[in-house]
Amino acid sequence: MTKQEIEEKLIAPLRGKRKVLIMTHDNPDPDSIASAFGLKYILKKTLGITSVIAYGGIIGRVENQSMVKLLHIDMLPLSEVSIRSYSVVALVDCQPHTGNVYLPPGVHPDIVIDHHPLRKSSEKAEFIDVRRGIGSTSTIITQYIRHLNLPVDKEVATALFYGIKSDTRDLGRQSTDIDVRLSVFLYPFTLQKKLARIEHPEKPREYYVKLYSILSNARIYGDVVVARVDLIGWPEMIGEFADELIQIEGIRWCLCYGRHNGSLIFSIRTTRPSYMAGVLAHKICHGIGKGGGHETYAAGKIDLAQALKKVKDPEDILLKRFLKEVSPRGMEPTMLVAADKVEIKPLQAEINS
Ligand SMILES: [Mn+2]
User: Fold this and answer.
1) Which residues lie below 8 Å from residue 271, measured CB to CB, with a gap of 6+?
2) How far apart are CA 261 and CA 303, in angstroms?
3) How many domains, the chain?
4) pLDDT of residue 233
5) Could you tell me the residue range of the domain that residue 34 belongs to?
6) In what order do the strands lie in the sheet with 297-303?
7) Residue at 341 is within a domain
8) Mean model confidence pLDDT for the chain
9) Does residue 253 fall inside a structural domain?
Protein backbone atom coordinates (compact mmCIF):
# COMPACT_ATOMS: atom_id res chain seq x y z
CA MET A 1 0.00 0.00 0.00
CA THR A 2 1.31 3.44 -0.91
CA LYS A 3 1.26 6.58 1.25
CA GLN A 4 -1.55 7.98 -0.88
CA GLU A 5 -3.64 4.83 -0.56
CA ILE A 6 -3.26 4.77 3.22
CA GLU A 7 -4.22 8.42 3.45
CA GLU A 8 -7.19 8.14 1.13
CA LYS A 9 -8.58 4.78 2.13
CA LEU A 10 -7.73 4.44 5.82
CA ILE A 11 -7.25 7.92 7.24
CA ALA A 12 -9.58 10.20 5.24
CA PRO A 13 -12.82 8.22 5.85
CA LEU A 14 -12.17 8.45 9.62
CA ARG A 15 -12.01 12.23 9.64
CA GLY A 16 -14.60 13.61 12.05
CA LYS A 17 -15.24 10.23 13.69
CA ARG A 18 -15.08 10.17 17.47
CA LYS A 19 -15.87 6.69 18.61
CA VAL A 20 -13.37 4.20 17.21
CA LEU A 21 -12.99 0.72 18.68
CA ILE A 22 -9.96 -1.38 17.83
CA MET A 23 -10.37 -5.08 18.51
CA THR A 24 -7.67 -7.71 18.80
CA HIS A 25 -8.52 -11.38 18.55
CA ASP A 26 -9.67 -13.24 21.65
CA ASN A 27 -6.84 -14.09 24.04
CA PRO A 28 -4.59 -11.70 22.11
CA ASP A 29 -1.00 -12.56 21.24
CA PRO A 30 1.84 -10.00 20.97
CA ASP A 31 1.19 -9.38 17.26
CA SER A 32 -2.46 -8.61 17.87
CA ILE A 33 -1.74 -6.40 20.88
CA ALA A 34 1.04 -4.49 19.08
CA SER A 35 -1.08 -3.98 15.95
CA ALA A 36 -3.91 -2.49 17.98
CA PHE A 37 -1.49 -0.26 19.91
CA GLY A 38 0.14 0.86 16.66
CA LEU A 39 -3.16 1.62 14.94
CA LYS A 40 -4.32 3.58 17.97
CA TYR A 41 -1.12 5.61 17.77
CA ILE A 42 -1.62 6.28 14.05
CA LEU A 43 -5.18 7.52 14.58
CA LYS A 44 -4.06 9.77 17.42
CA LYS A 45 -1.18 11.28 15.45
CA THR A 46 -3.00 11.77 12.17
CA LEU A 47 -6.53 12.66 13.26
CA GLY A 48 -6.35 13.31 17.01
CA ILE A 49 -8.75 10.41 17.62
CA THR A 50 -8.49 8.70 21.00
CA SER A 51 -9.59 5.16 20.17
CA VAL A 52 -10.28 2.32 22.56
CA ILE A 53 -8.64 -1.11 22.35
CA ALA A 54 -10.76 -4.08 23.42
CA TYR A 55 -10.18 -7.82 23.57
CA GLY A 56 -12.33 -10.87 24.16
CA GLY A 57 -11.09 -13.71 26.35
CA ILE A 58 -8.13 -13.09 28.62
CA ILE A 59 -4.50 -12.08 28.49
CA GLY A 60 -3.07 -15.10 30.23
CA ARG A 61 0.46 -15.54 28.98
CA VAL A 62 2.93 -13.91 31.34
CA GLU A 63 4.96 -12.41 28.47
CA ASN A 64 1.84 -10.73 27.10
CA GLN A 65 0.83 -9.42 30.50
CA SER A 66 4.24 -7.84 30.98
CA MET A 67 4.11 -6.39 27.44
CA VAL A 68 0.82 -4.63 28.24
CA LYS A 69 2.10 -3.42 31.60
CA LEU A 70 5.62 -2.29 30.69
CA LEU A 71 4.61 -0.54 27.46
CA HIS A 72 1.54 1.10 29.04
CA ILE A 73 -0.95 -0.36 26.59
CA ASP A 74 -4.50 0.47 27.63
CA MET A 75 -6.79 -2.41 26.75
CA LEU A 76 -10.26 -3.20 28.00
CA PRO A 77 -12.00 -6.54 28.19
CA LEU A 78 -14.83 -6.59 25.65
CA SER A 79 -17.30 -7.09 28.50
CA GLU A 80 -16.55 -3.56 29.69
CA VAL A 81 -17.20 -2.01 26.28
CA SER A 82 -20.51 -1.29 24.64
CA ILE A 83 -19.54 -2.18 21.12
CA ARG A 84 -22.72 -0.83 19.50
CA SER A 85 -21.97 2.68 20.73
CA TYR A 86 -18.90 2.88 18.45
CA SER A 87 -19.28 4.28 14.96
CA VAL A 88 -16.12 2.56 13.71
CA VAL A 89 -14.93 -0.95 14.57
CA ALA A 90 -11.49 -2.07 13.43
CA LEU A 91 -10.21 -5.65 13.63
CA VAL A 92 -6.49 -6.30 13.72
CA ASP A 93 -4.77 -9.66 13.22
CA CYS A 94 -8.15 -11.39 12.80
CA GLN A 95 -11.30 -11.45 10.68
CA PRO A 96 -15.00 -11.86 11.47
CA HIS A 97 -16.57 -15.32 11.85
CA THR A 98 -13.31 -17.19 12.12
CA GLY A 99 -13.91 -18.39 15.66
CA ASN A 100 -11.19 -16.31 17.30
CA VAL A 101 -12.95 -12.97 17.61
CA TYR A 102 -16.37 -12.45 19.10
CA LEU A 103 -18.63 -9.89 17.42
CA PRO A 104 -22.25 -9.50 18.58
CA PRO A 105 -24.88 -10.30 15.94
CA GLY A 106 -25.30 -7.48 13.44
CA VAL A 107 -21.93 -5.86 14.21
CA HIS A 108 -19.64 -5.73 11.17
CA PRO A 109 -16.13 -4.34 11.22
CA ASP A 110 -15.41 -1.24 9.15
CA ILE A 111 -11.67 -1.89 9.04
CA VAL A 112 -9.90 -5.25 8.76
CA ILE A 113 -6.10 -5.47 8.88
CA ASP A 114 -4.70 -8.98 8.97
CA HIS A 115 -2.26 -11.52 7.54
CA HIS A 116 -4.39 -14.65 7.66
CA PRO A 117 -6.10 -15.94 4.50
CA LEU A 118 -8.87 -13.54 3.41
CA ARG A 119 -12.36 -14.62 4.47
CA LYS A 120 -15.54 -13.78 2.62
CA SER A 121 -16.91 -12.32 5.84
CA SER A 122 -14.32 -9.52 5.68
CA GLU A 123 -15.40 -8.27 2.30
CA LYS A 124 -18.15 -6.09 3.77
CA ALA A 125 -15.59 -3.89 5.50
CA GLU A 126 -14.83 -0.52 3.97
CA PHE A 127 -11.10 -0.79 4.49
CA ILE A 128 -9.48 -4.18 4.01
CA ASP A 129 -5.74 -4.79 4.10
CA VAL A 130 -5.30 -8.53 4.36
CA ARG A 131 -1.91 -9.75 3.23
CA ARG A 132 -1.51 -13.44 3.56
CA GLY A 133 2.10 -13.52 2.49
CA ILE A 134 3.40 -11.30 5.28
CA GLY A 135 4.83 -12.49 8.62
CA SER A 136 2.77 -10.38 10.97
CA THR A 137 0.07 -7.72 11.20
CA SER A 138 2.59 -5.59 13.12
CA THR A 139 4.60 -5.43 9.90
CA ILE A 140 1.64 -3.89 8.06
CA ILE A 141 1.06 -1.33 10.85
CA THR A 142 4.77 -0.44 10.89
CA GLN A 143 4.59 0.14 7.17
CA TYR A 144 1.71 2.61 7.67
CA ILE A 145 3.73 4.52 10.29
CA ARG A 146 6.67 4.67 7.94
CA HIS A 147 4.71 5.67 4.86
CA LEU A 148 2.85 8.35 6.79
CA ASN A 149 6.18 9.73 8.03
CA LEU A 150 4.98 9.75 11.62
CA PRO A 151 7.46 10.23 14.45
CA VAL A 152 8.26 6.86 16.01
CA ASP A 153 7.19 6.45 19.61
CA LYS A 154 9.52 4.16 21.54
CA GLU A 155 6.85 2.18 23.31
CA VAL A 156 4.91 1.69 20.07
CA ALA A 157 8.12 0.69 18.28
CA THR A 158 8.99 -1.82 21.02
CA ALA A 159 5.53 -3.37 20.84
CA LEU A 160 5.62 -3.63 17.03
CA PHE A 161 9.15 -5.00 17.03
CA TYR A 162 8.11 -7.67 19.52
CA GLY A 163 4.92 -8.32 17.53
CA ILE A 164 6.92 -9.09 14.39
CA LYS A 165 9.56 -11.03 16.32
CA SER A 166 7.12 -13.21 18.15
CA ASP A 167 4.76 -13.97 15.23
CA THR A 168 7.69 -14.93 13.00
CA ARG A 169 9.56 -16.71 15.80
CA ASP A 170 12.60 -14.45 15.49
CA LEU A 171 12.04 -13.82 11.77
CA GLY A 172 12.41 -17.51 11.01
CA ARG A 173 8.80 -18.55 10.55
CA GLN A 174 7.05 -17.40 7.39
CA SER A 175 8.89 -14.12 7.43
CA THR A 176 9.45 -12.09 4.29
CA ASP A 177 11.93 -9.41 3.27
CA ILE A 178 9.41 -6.80 4.35
CA ASP A 179 9.24 -8.21 7.88
CA VAL A 180 13.02 -8.14 8.11
CA ARG A 181 13.32 -4.63 6.69
CA LEU A 182 10.68 -3.17 8.98
CA SER A 183 12.22 -4.88 12.03
CA VAL A 184 15.47 -3.16 11.13
CA PHE A 185 13.59 0.13 10.80
CA LEU A 186 12.08 -0.29 14.29
CA TYR A 187 15.22 -1.60 15.98
CA PRO A 188 16.89 1.73 16.85
CA PHE A 189 13.69 2.88 18.57
CA THR A 190 13.08 -0.25 20.64
CA LEU A 191 13.55 -0.19 24.38
CA GLN A 192 15.87 -3.19 24.67
CA LYS A 193 15.81 -3.53 28.46
CA LYS A 194 12.03 -3.49 28.53
CA LEU A 195 11.91 -5.95 25.66
CA ALA A 196 14.19 -8.31 27.57
CA ARG A 197 11.92 -8.06 30.61
CA ILE A 198 8.91 -8.83 28.41
CA GLU A 199 10.53 -11.82 26.75
CA HIS A 200 12.00 -13.32 29.90
CA PRO A 201 9.51 -12.62 32.67
CA GLU A 202 9.17 -14.33 36.01
CA LYS A 203 6.73 -17.19 35.62
CA PRO A 204 4.31 -18.46 38.24
CA ARG A 205 4.99 -21.93 39.68
CA GLU A 206 1.75 -23.01 38.07
CA TYR A 207 3.44 -22.73 34.67
CA TYR A 208 5.96 -25.39 35.60
CA VAL A 209 3.28 -27.64 37.05
CA LYS A 210 1.47 -27.45 33.70
CA LEU A 211 4.68 -27.98 31.76
CA TYR A 212 5.41 -31.09 33.82
CA SER A 213 1.92 -32.38 33.20
CA ILE A 214 2.12 -31.87 29.44
CA LEU A 215 5.56 -33.42 29.12
CA SER A 216 4.50 -36.49 31.05
CA ASN A 217 1.34 -36.76 28.94
CA ALA A 218 2.89 -36.31 25.47
CA ARG A 219 2.66 -39.30 23.15
CA ILE A 220 4.72 -39.89 20.06
CA TYR A 221 3.40 -41.59 16.95
CA GLY A 222 6.46 -41.89 14.72
CA ASP A 223 7.23 -38.29 13.80
CA VAL A 224 4.03 -36.90 15.30
CA VAL A 225 3.61 -35.69 18.88
CA VAL A 226 0.23 -35.31 20.54
CA ALA A 227 -0.39 -33.90 24.00
CA ARG A 228 -3.49 -33.18 25.98
CA VAL A 229 -3.29 -30.45 28.60
CA ASP A 230 -5.51 -31.46 31.48
CA LEU A 231 -6.19 -28.20 33.22
CA ILE A 232 -5.51 -25.20 31.08
CA GLY A 233 -4.43 -22.21 33.13
CA TRP A 234 -4.85 -19.76 30.26
CA PRO A 235 -5.90 -20.43 26.66
CA GLU A 236 -2.65 -19.34 24.99
CA MET A 237 -0.93 -22.09 26.97
CA ILE A 238 -1.94 -24.58 24.28
CA GLY A 239 -0.06 -22.69 21.57
CA GLU A 240 2.86 -22.05 23.87
CA PHE A 241 3.33 -25.74 24.59
CA ALA A 242 2.80 -26.67 20.94
CA ASP A 243 5.70 -24.34 20.11
CA GLU A 244 7.76 -26.19 22.68
CA LEU A 245 6.92 -29.71 21.54
CA ILE A 246 7.43 -29.11 17.81
CA GLN A 247 11.09 -28.57 18.66
CA ILE A 248 11.56 -32.23 19.61
CA GLU A 249 14.17 -33.78 17.36
CA GLY A 250 12.68 -35.71 14.44
CA ILE A 251 9.14 -34.45 14.98
CA ARG A 252 7.19 -33.21 11.97
CA TRP A 253 3.73 -32.57 13.39
CA CYS A 254 2.39 -31.52 16.78
CA LEU A 255 -1.12 -31.32 18.19
CA CYS A 256 -1.84 -29.88 21.65
CA TYR A 257 -5.36 -29.67 22.94
CA GLY A 258 -7.37 -29.20 26.10
CA ARG A 259 -10.54 -27.78 27.57
CA HIS A 260 -11.10 -24.22 28.63
CA ASN A 261 -14.37 -22.51 29.55
CA GLY A 262 -16.62 -25.05 27.87
CA SER A 263 -14.55 -25.20 24.71
CA LEU A 264 -12.03 -27.64 23.38
CA ILE A 265 -9.14 -25.63 22.03
CA PHE A 266 -6.23 -26.93 20.00
CA SER A 267 -3.02 -25.82 18.33
CA ILE A 268 -1.21 -27.46 15.46
CA ARG A 269 2.42 -26.98 14.47
CA THR A 270 4.42 -28.45 11.65
CA THR A 271 8.03 -28.15 10.62
CA ARG A 272 7.41 -27.84 6.87
CA PRO A 273 5.43 -25.03 5.25
CA SER A 274 4.14 -27.27 2.46
CA TYR A 275 2.08 -29.24 4.99
CA MET A 276 -0.44 -26.42 5.41
CA ALA A 277 -1.31 -26.53 9.12
CA GLY A 278 -4.13 -23.99 8.63
CA VAL A 279 -5.94 -26.17 6.12
CA LEU A 280 -5.59 -29.16 8.43
CA ALA A 281 -6.92 -27.21 11.44
CA HIS A 282 -9.96 -26.30 9.37
CA LYS A 283 -10.47 -29.87 8.19
CA ILE A 284 -10.19 -31.76 11.49
CA CYS A 285 -12.90 -29.74 13.22
CA HIS A 286 -15.21 -29.58 10.24
CA GLY A 287 -18.83 -29.67 11.38
CA ILE A 288 -17.98 -29.45 15.09
CA GLY A 289 -15.91 -26.28 15.41
CA LYS A 290 -13.76 -23.67 13.73
CA GLY A 291 -10.11 -23.79 12.85
CA GLY A 292 -7.56 -22.17 10.61
CA GLY A 293 -4.23 -20.41 10.52
CA HIS A 294 -0.98 -20.28 8.67
CA GLU A 295 1.22 -22.77 6.86
CA THR A 296 3.23 -23.98 9.84
CA TYR A 297 1.02 -22.95 12.75
CA ALA A 298 -2.70 -23.05 13.26
CA ALA A 299 -5.38 -23.33 15.92
CA GLY A 300 -9.02 -24.02 16.44
CA LYS A 301 -11.87 -24.12 18.87
CA ILE A 302 -14.82 -26.44 19.40
CA ASP A 303 -17.77 -25.31 21.49
CA LEU A 304 -18.39 -28.51 23.45
CA ALA A 305 -22.09 -27.96 24.19
CA GLN A 306 -22.75 -27.37 20.48
CA ALA A 307 -20.54 -30.22 19.31
CA LEU A 308 -22.10 -32.70 21.75
CA LYS A 309 -25.44 -32.19 20.04
CA LYS A 310 -23.92 -33.65 16.89
CA VAL A 311 -21.34 -36.17 18.06
CA LYS A 312 -20.66 -38.26 21.15
CA ASP A 313 -17.02 -37.48 21.78
CA PRO A 314 -15.65 -34.37 20.00
CA GLU A 315 -12.24 -34.79 21.58
CA ASP A 316 -11.87 -38.32 20.28
CA ILE A 317 -13.00 -37.23 16.81
CA LEU A 318 -10.49 -34.39 16.72
CA LEU A 319 -7.63 -36.67 17.70
CA LYS A 320 -8.59 -39.46 15.31
CA ARG A 321 -9.04 -37.08 12.37
CA PHE A 322 -5.67 -35.50 13.08
CA LEU A 323 -3.85 -38.80 13.30
CA LYS A 324 -5.58 -40.08 10.19
CA GLU A 325 -4.20 -37.12 8.25
CA VAL A 326 -0.65 -37.12 9.52
CA SER A 327 0.43 -40.48 10.83
CA PRO A 328 0.62 -44.00 9.42
CA ARG A 329 -2.50 -45.95 10.24
CA GLY A 330 -2.65 -47.87 13.49
CA MET A 331 0.73 -46.77 14.80
CA GLU A 332 1.10 -47.44 18.53
CA PRO A 333 2.22 -44.40 20.51
CA THR A 334 5.14 -44.25 22.88
CA MET A 335 5.39 -41.79 25.75
CA LEU A 336 7.75 -38.84 25.25
CA VAL A 337 9.02 -39.22 28.79
CA ALA A 338 8.99 -42.82 29.97
CA ALA A 339 9.40 -42.71 33.72
CA ASP A 340 11.35 -45.98 33.92
CA LYS A 341 13.96 -44.74 31.46
CA VAL A 342 15.28 -42.09 33.79
CA GLU A 343 18.49 -43.50 35.11
CA ILE A 344 20.79 -41.79 37.55
CA LYS A 345 24.23 -43.31 37.83
CA PRO A 346 25.93 -43.19 41.20
CA LEU A 347 28.57 -40.47 41.20
CA GLN A 348 31.44 -42.96 41.62
CA ALA A 349 30.31 -44.96 38.58
CA GLU A 350 30.14 -41.73 36.60
CA ILE A 351 33.72 -40.83 37.53
CA ASN A 352 35.00 -44.36 36.73
CA SER A 353 33.32 -44.57 33.36
MN1 LIG B 1 -0.43 -12.38 13.63
Assistant:
1) 246, 251, 252, 253, 296
2) 9
3) 2
4) 80
5) 3-199
6) 290-293, 297-303, 263-270, 253-260, 224-229, 219-221, 334-335
7) no
8) 93
9) yes
**What residue type is assigned to position 204 of the chain?**
P
Q: How far is the CA of 138 from the centre of ligand 1 (A)?
A: 7
Residues 113 and 151 in one domain: yes
With a CB cutoff of 8 Å and minimum separation 6, the contacts of 184 are none
- Tell me: do 144 and 216 sit in the same domain: no
- Residue 283 is inside which H or E element, if any? helix 277-284
pLDDT tens-digit readout, 88-98: 999 999 999 88
Gap from CA of 204 to ligand 1 centroid (Å): 26
Assign residue 65 the CATH number of its domain.
3.90.1640.10
Q: How far is the CA of 115 from the centre of ligand 1 (A)?
A: 6
What is the distance in A from the centroid of ligand 1 to the CA of 48?
27
User: Is residue 117 domain-shared with residue 149, that is, in the same domain?
Assistant: yes
Q: Quick one: 118 and 158 in the same domain? A: yes
Instruction: Compute, in angstroms, the gap from residue 247 CA to the centroid of ligand 1.
Output: 21
pLDDT for 341: 58
**Which segments of the chain have a pLDDT < 70?**
339-344, 353
CA of 193 to the centre of ligand 1 (A): 24
Dist. CA 176 → ligand 1 center (Å): 14
Distance CA 303, CA 288 (A): 8
Residues 194 and 210 in one domain: no
The amino acid occupying position 301 is K
Q: Would you state the pLDDT for residue 59? A: 94
CA of 141 from ligand 1 middle (Å) equals: 11
Residue 94 Cα to ligand 1 midpoint, Å, equals: 8
